[in-house]
Amino acid sequence: MNQSKKGLSNWLLVVGVLILAVAPLIFIRDAEFNGADGQAEAAIGEVQPGYEPWFQPVFEPPSGEVESLLFSSQAALGAGVIGYVIGLYKERNRQERNKG
Amino acid sequence: MHIMEGYLPASWAIFWWVVTLPFLALGLRSLTRITQANPELKLLLALAGAFTFVLSALKIPSVTGSSSHPTGTGLGAVLFGPLAMSVLGTLVLLFQALLMAHGGLTTLGANAFSMAIAGPFAAYWIYHLTKRVTGKQKIAIFLAAALANLLTYIITSVQLALAFPAPVGGFMASFAKFAGIFAITQVPLAISEGLLTVLVWNWLQSYTSHELELLKLIQGEPQSNESV
Q1: Do the chains contact at A78 and B51, CB–CB below 8 Å?
Q2: DSSP structural state of residue B167
Q3: Which residues of B touch A46 (CB under 8 A)?
Q4: Over 80: is that where the pLDDT of B14 sits?
Q5: Which of B2, B13, B117, B194 could hold B8 in an S-S bridge, CB 3.0 to 4.6 Å?
């Protein structure tokens, strides 16, 4: 596959992911989009109404804002590393091609 | 797939820790071997770790009106094998358990088993099976990442159903309930994860042919379908 065709298919992959993420927001208007993990927690309460968690988290983010800060930091750190590594490989590749 | 802190009865929490620990020990050995044999692969290992770090932080809305997240473990499992990925995936879960109260220490054994062990092993086998049957590498990568994601959530449903069988209908009724929450929600996310994994794979193929050859994922002659 030549380079421009590959570039195009990469864009299609990104567009596919965006459509899959945005479509529910547009088409399912009255949904709250709660986390599935939290829904499972509620389901445990339905199956076994008396269940009390026997251990508490060692640290809990004090607010939703702090929690979203931590989540975005996680994504930012990971994305930074991916960008750095891919950039490094790309430049190495270019130098090797120039030499060869 | 994060079972919240304290939400598995102690006996099940211990059970899943006992199941998970040997994989982590073997995973550490596998990581040591990989990096000792080929130190230049450390950078690619960092990329595989970072990929699951990013993807598991992204909570994406889904068709069921709830949100969930990809796992990102398929890429690393195909690149470095499932054992190596068990360690990287568990580190991500540990980070989330300690800092975000997402998952927990008592439930880490169970969560690591679903996301960092069952998912990667499934990805690894699906990749090699699909590659052998179809000869198409990208389809193999897509299926490996997407199905590993789905399986992770099915395992979580099994774990919850085992620990909380319904008073009427027992394990199967509970499993249907938990899988109902996770499985359909996860289908579009699994597809997204497959697409994103192919995206990163395309970059790797363009720029890291040397590393992929070391890992025996591509051969010196490109586009050769015969695998050893």
Answers
A1: yes
A2: T
A3: 177
A4: yes
A5: B13
A99: distance to nearest CA of chain B, Å?
15
CA atoms within 13 A on the CB side of B173: 11
Quick one: DSSP state of residue B222? Answer: T
Shortest alpha-carbon distance between residue A80 and chain B (Å): 8
pLDDT digits (tens, 9 = 90+) for A11-52: 999 999 999 999 999 998 888 899 999 999 999 999 999 999
Strand spans (E) along B28-172: 60-61, 66-68
CB contact under 8 A, A85 and B43: yes
* Neighbouring residues of B70: CB distance < 8 A, sequence distance ≥ 6: B55, B56, B58, B60, B149, B189, B190, B192, B193, B196
What one-letter code names the amino acid at B90? T
Record: contact B4-A31, CB cut-off 8 A: no
Give the model's pLDDT for residue B227.
45
Helices (H) and strands (E) in chain B, counts: 9, 2
Q: At what angle do helices B137-163 and B170-207 cross, to 10 degrees?
A: 150
